[in-house]
Design brief:
The protein is elongated. Strand 4 and strand 5 form a beta hairpin. The longest helix has 44 residues. 59% of the residues lie in helices and 12% in strands. The chain is an alpha+beta fold.
Length: 290
């Protein structure tokens, strides 16, 4: 064969694509396309399942179960102060369950597992338990509830006693009997009985005065914190029991004027030297965070 013809034939075979390679390439492309489609389909299905689960969970969390009067047969009533989101409360053990447990199956499981000895009791038994629970709740409210007007009257009388520097026992020994006698003559016995509920014992007056003193001190400290500048003046003295006392006075500015106030009275341990005064004032500043 001539060299020119041989070279042309070799050139033809080099440029001609292989049919097997074409088939394999086509098969590989088809497999890759199928795999990518499957992956995208699986991803979409997973995302849809996750969205559906989150939506159902959100709807389940927003759903509030309501109480049914039939649940009294299982020994359950509504827990007090749960009107917006009703919570079941067991009348036997007074245990409060979650709102999700407001189902007959869960209530029955609680009753049978913890109070199996009461299974088969009639509905009248649970109605009696309900009435007893409500009566006890009313009694506790009456015992713990103090009329605001009577409490305010106790504070006003304690303030007058402290201003006049009288002993705390004067409230129960003198002031209260005078009020009852005057109210009985002027208003009648029925109105006078209301004044008997005013707490004026020695311990009550002491607590009222301490509460007012702490409140006044906190108000002065808050005003000092809000002012840009303030000054403190100290004065030491002794009381009747010969204890060293450090009196603290403060002067601070407000938007309108400059105010002088009595801040507090500290007890000094030992001598009234400048070191003790400094540490006493330092402790006060640290506690009040001035």
């Amino acid at each position: 064969m001539e060299p020119s013809k041989q070279k042309s034939i070799m050139h033809f075979f080099q440029k001609k694509p292989n049919s097997e390679n074409l088939v394999s390439g086509f098969n590989m492309t088809e497999e890759e396309t199928t795999t990518s489609d499957l992956q995208h389909g699986l991803k979409r299905s997973c995302n849809n399942n996750m969205d559906h689960a989150e939506k159902s969970k959100r709807e389940k969390g927003d759903f509030i179960r309501q109480y049914d009067s039939k649940y009294l047969e299982f020994g359950f009533t509504i827990a007090p102060s749960s009107e917006k989101v009703p919570l079941p409360m067991c009348l036997v053990c007074a245990k409060i369950l979650s709102n999700d447990a407001m189902k007959p199956s869960k209530l029955t499981r609680h009753f049978h597992s913890l109070h199996s000895n009461l299974v088969g009791k009639p509905l009248a038994y649970f109605k009696r338990l309900l009435s007893e629970t409500e009566n006890e709740r009313i009694k506790i409210k009456k015992m713990t509830k103090t009329d605001k007007d009577l409490l305010k009257s106790s504070y006003l009388i304690a303030l007058l006693i402290s201003k006049t520097k009288k002993p705390f026992t004067i409230g129960e020994d003198l002031i209260k009997p005078c009020m009852l006698a005057a109210a009985t003559e002027v208003l009648g016995p029925e109105q006078a009985n209301k004044l008997k509920a005013i707490p004026l014992s020695n311990d009550s007056i002491k607590r009222r005065i301490l509460d007012m003193a702490v409140d006044v001190e906190q108000q002065v400290i808050e005003q000092v914190k809000q002012s840009r500048y303030f000054a403190i003046q100290l004065d030491e003295s002794t009381d009747l029991s010969n204890c060293a006392i450090l009196s603290c006075f403060v002067r601070y500015e407000t938007e309108e004027s400059i105010i002088d106030e009595f801040l507090c009275c500290l007890q000094l341990h030992g001598r009234t030297r400048p070191v003790q005064k400094y540490f006493g004032l330092l402790i006060l500043m640290c506690k009040s965070k001035v």
